[in-house]
Please model this.
Amino acid sequence: MTLLPDPTPDDVTHILRARALALAREPEVAASADARIELIEFGLADERYAIEAAFVREVHPLEDLTPLPCTPPFLLGLVNVRGRILPVIDPKKFFELPERGITDLHVILLVQARGMEFGLLADSIVGVRTVSRDAIQSSLPTLTGIRAEYLLGVTAERLVILAAERIAADPRIIIDEEVDT
Model:
């Protein structure tokens, strides 16, 4: 058996410095956690959509919807959620998807983005899932028109991920009109 010679003070300094640098690096687990995104998946016009869970405050049943006259067709109306009056947007009308009418099975995703809070109507909630950011494609050639503007990406399973901040930034959803009497 061969014994190694005692390290010199320079060797010790070099070893300790290398260990300090290795310990100071961010852990691999934290880096991989940032590479994943948690989504709320929902059904909309026979397609599967999702939105980042970080923007969804809660899911609420569609109850007591009050229609608003003189508003764009995609603005269904207002709902009162524990004292907060929130507008409800119908993504099917906003994205020009096929409509089938509204039932009591519909739900509202209460979304908060860019200092705004609003509801997005969904046909059904599929669930919560986590997806790797690397698995999200930026767009598909078949997704054209208005949907592409608000698209965060599409997964290989054809799950369309909406960008809540882009929807909230659209000037069309801010309605500031007065009706002439």
